[in-house]
Specification:
Layout: E1 4-6, E2 9-11, H1 44-50, H2 61-73, H3 85-100, E3 116-121, E4 126-131, E5 134-141, E6 154-157, E7 160-166, E8 173-181, E9 184-188, E10 203-205, H4 207-216, E11 222-226
Parallel strand pairs: 3-11, 9-10
Antiparallel strand pairs: 1-2, 3-4, 4-5, 6-11, 7-8, 8-9
């Protein structure tokens, strides 16, 4: 969460979301483990299937290497190749995001009578921009608030934009910040969008997507956030 100073009022902000859906894996810092576990995790078969490995439900050296690689790319720790609930949760979310395809607002939950609007689906950790019923950009994967810092739901508006914002609360850069609900903003981060457990409330985006949102949205544009992030 970043914080912002505007008109003399200090607002504590939150560091915090295809055509077809682009699930870009951005390498994130992870605590490297010096070994690969031989233990079979409770989600071994699911992980094997997701990674295109032979599905036998038994941990092998090759299985562990593949799982560790996935964990390292997404900042999942400990990075020891164990197919536990956190690792499977990320894999399952990616599968669900892929299944959404080119119709992210199939449920009609994001308003289509507002003109240009940025939609955030917390359940699928996806965001997109639409104009009426027309999909303008996305859907793209995003990283929203973790448990205790959940991204607030509801209809708001982009009220302040800062291209080179730096959080004075956490002393971290928040490029392409577009604030829409108190200290919550769309902004770029150098993390995988599936890095657990999530942001402090902001809608984290890849640099590419945050830059595109910056070019498409303007102050006063509507933002609608709905659903519930897995694990919160």
């Amino acid at each position: 969460m970043g914080d912002i100073r505007r008109r003399g009022v200090v607002a504590a902000g939150i560091t915090g979301l295809v055509a077809p859906l682009t699930l870009a894996l951005t390498a994130a810092p992870a605590q490297a483990a010096s070994y690969c576990t031989t233990s079979t995790g409770p989600y071994q078969k699911q992980a094997e299937k997701f990674l295109g490995r032979p599905v036998d439900g038994r941990q092998s050296a090759a299985d562990c290497k593949a799982i560790r690689s996935f964990q390292a790319k997404n900042g999942i720790t400990p990075t020891i190749g164990y197919a536990g609930p956190v690792t499977w949760g990320v894999m399952d979310l990616i599968d669900k995001q892929k299944a959404v395809g080119r119709n992210p607002n199939k449920s009609g939950k994001c308003p289509v009578n507002k003109g240009r609007i940025a939609c955030v689906d917390l359940t699928h950790q996806l965001s997109w921009i639409q104009d009426g019923k027309k999909l303008v950009y996305g859907p793209v994967p995003v990283r929203t608030g973790r448990k205790g810092f959940v991204t607030r739901t509801g209809l708001t508006k982009v009220y302040w934009r800062d291209l080179h914002h730096v959080s004075t609360l956490y002393d971290v850069p928040m490029p392409y910040s577009q604030f829409f609900n108190g200290g919550e903003a769309f902004h770029s981060v150098g993390l995988s969008m599936w890095n657990p457990p999530g942001s402090h409330g902001c809608v984290n985006m890849t640099p590419k997507d945050a830059k595109k949102y910056w070019s498409l949205l303007r102050t006063g544009d509507d933002v609608f956030v709905y659903g519930r992030k897995p694990g919160t």
